[in-house]
Amino acid sequence: xxxxxxxxNNLLRPILLRFPSFVPTLVYxxxxxxxxxxxxxxxxxxxxxxxxxxxxxxxxxxxxxxxFNAAGMFKEVLGYELCYRQGAxxxxxxxxxPESRKGNIKMGxxxxxxxxxxxKSAINWMGLxxxxxxxxxxxxxxxxxxxxxxxxxxxxxxxxxxSKVAIPELIDALKLIEKSQVDFIELNESCPNVxxxxxxxxxxxxxxxxxxxxxxxSSKFLRKRNRILPVIVKFxxxxxPNQVDELIELLINLNFDGINFGNTSTNYSSIQxxxxxxxxxNFEFFTKNFGGGVSGYVLKNQSLNxxxxxxxxxxxxxxxxxxxxxxxxxxESAEDIQKSNETGxxxxxxxxxxxxxxxxxxxxxxxxxxxxx
Length: 373
Fold this sequence. Notes:
- By secondary structure, the protein is an alpha/beta fold.
- The chain has one domain (2-371): TIM Barrel (Alpha-Beta Barrel), CATH 3.20.20.70.
- The protein has 13 helices and 17 strands.
- The chain has helices at 2-16, 22-41, 80-86, 132-141, 163-178, 208-220, 244-253, 268-274, 280-289, 300-315, 334-343, 352-361, 365-371, and strands at 56-58, 61-63, 67-69, 91-96, 105-106, 109-110, 113-116, 121-124, 151-155, 184-188, 202-203, 206-207, 231-236, 258-263, 293-296, 324-328, 347-350.
- Strands 3-17-16-14-13-10-9-4 form an eight-stranded parallel beta sheet. A three-stranded antiparallel beta sheet has the order 7-8-15. A two-stranded antiparallel sheet has the order 1-2.
- Helix 1 (2-16) packs antiparallel against helix 2 (22-41) and helix 10 packs parallel to helix 11 (334-343).
- The longest helix has 20 residues, at 22-41.
């Protein structure tokens, strides 16, 4: 079934994207869900081989490769066996919030999404739809975990609540995760499709509200962990490069275990200049009516630049434990992984690039990447 859907999409996508923009937005917003549900059921008949040279180990946790899915792909905490057999370095579920969320809906379209086909990018306005922490951890408990494919969980504070309520609830959720078989946590500070509370006060180049949140999470959770449970903080690809050094110092000093650059981008004026002219009509329709965050090819230079600065700062900062730099944004080829390796990036995540490669190579999307490195 998944093969048929992929072939039909490859054949019809260039035609469908020429229709009035509302039509492909509607089709792909609902078609994406259908594809993912079929993908969960469509497993490689056996484990696909990934050379051991691509394995990594951090915090005593083995990753069978240094590439795995970004948050947003497996919101329903389904797909672990698929990731393991394909050769993904981990299974990252979420982003989850303490309470379930229905996500965004507008113009009759639930979780709007559209590919920017010729630019090898996409744009979405989903709004963190998820099943909540309780149901997510029940599903995590049913996973038959394999060595080399750890379970990560992306989590965010409840965006519609004030910080004084949302952060204590987030900390309670982190304590629940500690009791589960989750191996690492990614704290999402970067989703562009929900409202964020900013303090309007800066300390150096960093928002004071962020500093306060990180300090509270550190004192109430990180410093009280009863087992190895790394927490990585994910920031946007729109992060000002001048902030990177201070972010690294802040996170290391507060006992966080890594940083991820980054999530999707809302820097529309910059992105528009990089898009293929055939994608501009759909891009302008989507951003005008929904907003949304852009993912894919157009982010690769910015994600590499931010991660390069993070690696340089990490290497000159004394810290007592492993601090991992993760790159997300524009990853789609062996060349991208090679550049990450040369820069000193520890792990990579992909989203739009995964679907691009899956459309070409099916379940061998990981092995084809690594064969060329």
